[in-house]
Amino acid sequence: MNATMIQTTGLTRHFTVKKDVVEAVRGLDLHVAEGELVALLGPNGAGKSTTLRMLTTLIPPTSGTASVAGYDVIAQQRDVRRVIGYIGQGNGAAHAQRGRDELVSQGRAYGLTGRDAKARADELVASLDLAAVADRPVSSLSGGQKRRLDIAMGLIHAPQLLFLDEPSTGLDPQNRANLQEHILKLRAEHGTTIVLTTHYLDEADAMAERVIVIDHGTVIADDTPARLKAEHAGDLITLGFGSASDAGAAAARLSSLSGATVSAGGATVEVRVAGGPRLVPGILRDLDAAGIAVESTAVNRPTLDDVFLNLTGRSLREGVVTPSSEEIAA
Amino acid sequence: MSSTTMITDTVTVFSRELRPVLRDPFSVVFSMIQPLVFLGLFAPLLPDVEGGSALQWFVPGIVVMSCLFSTAFTGSNLLFEIQTGAHERMLVTPLRRPALIVGRALKEIVPMIVQTAIIVLVCVPFGFDLHVLGVLLGVAILAVMAVGLGALSYTLALASKDTEWLFWTVQQTVLFPVLLLAGILLPVDDGPGWLRALSAANPLTYVVDAERALFNGEFPASTVLSAVVAAVVVAVLGLAVGTRAMRRSS
């Protein structure tokens, strides 16, 4: 087992908003080992960013303890800051600055010499494909270019632990894919421990080996995406029929299937069940033998949204407030 | 990776702040438009004073005004960085919190010197008598004042984190009374008692008085000393509240 990178015990943070106490994070117990890539998944307001802001020393916890890379987030703030990289929701580079200048300042902030900071800035400019824009004012960069610059700034000191808060929000699908590729490459090359927050299910699904589902400030599930889906949501088998009466008859027969949830609507029957692909041939034979003609079939693997729906009774997508470009494009 | 100190941190913050100014020196001139307008449109209305041009009295005030405007405005840069996320990124680095305010405030000295040089050089052909030693000492006092005013502006920006209008409202509300009460545009000596009392409570008044003497080649000890004390008080106060605000910043 790898060394502990993050350990929190009863981590809690309250905010007072107009005399009302909002419990953003409630008694979070978290353990992340060195080298893990963990996604904190949850709707807006679930407490993901607040958790990250406590772990990165930006705000103190109301109660509870947290240690990051062996340092206490309250008593050893500067030690924590030295070893972590943080890419927040905003843009790290100031609009009035030029990208390369900001990279050098960032390097100096971590104690690199002027020469080392310049060399490291050049290296990151090249590896994040920023050569064409690094010497322009940051305000003139596109969203994707600014985000790549943010990543470069977060990596200037080759941190052993990198936090990313909603890294791909506001990016188009191509830039999102590009960003994910950079993050995965970083991990493959340097073994960096990565903790990211996201409300994009596919992102958590595609990148993280471990997904921590957070809702109302507490962890409600913590496992690999595959196991979360297997445990908390089945496959969805959709059967199409020639008529509603056929569908009704089929639904009646299928209700005897163990562990399945069957719902009929119009000429369609939906069956939510584990191990869907292997059950379909049997279902088709059974319906055929009963004289019910199936016109179409589809099997959908569960998504993390199904997991969230199953755990909370709400869809994660309802929590998405920002109409970002990728949803319009999707 | 070498270790950092309060001094290297301050240098890092100072250099970062200064870089956009060096990249685009014209930005310093843009912030001077208002003082230059006053110089061009207000100074000609003033009657000549005994022994020389009205500029001799007016120019030091405009130098202080130029410094006041640009330092009061400077917090808006931080406010913008708070809104875009650049400030948060700085807070996550190991930079010491006092360095984040001291480095920024020290940078205010540079545009102040450039602005003073421009104003003085523009006025010399129009009859302004240049006394180099006095101007240099005047600039040194103003440098201390600029650090304090800059720190106060940054503090206001930090306090306005979630309410941008607060910055501009407070800044504009405070700026003009401070300007007028310091006797920059018109002398307050002949004003009513309450106004003179307010003027006496304004640290900038002492700085303006000293600048007028120094720019005229005079070195009255008590006037200069009062100005030094006023500037130091503002600087210490500004950096103290600024450091406190920066430590609480998130």
From TrEMBL, chain B:
Q: Which domain of life is it from?
A: Bacteria
Q: How does it sit in the membrane?
A: Multi-pass membrane protein
Q: What is the lineage of its organism?
A: Bacteria, Bacillati, Actinomycetota, Actinomycetes, Jiangellales
The protein's location, in the record's own words, is: Cell membrane; Membrane
Which keywords annotate this record?
Antibiotic resistance, Cell membrane, Membrane, Transmembrane, Transmembrane helix, Transport
Q: Which Pfam families match?
A: ABC2_membrane
Question: Locate the ABC transmembrane type-2 domain: which residues?
Answer: 22-249
Q: What is this protein called in UniProt?
A: Transport permease protein
* BP term (GO), one: response to antibiotic
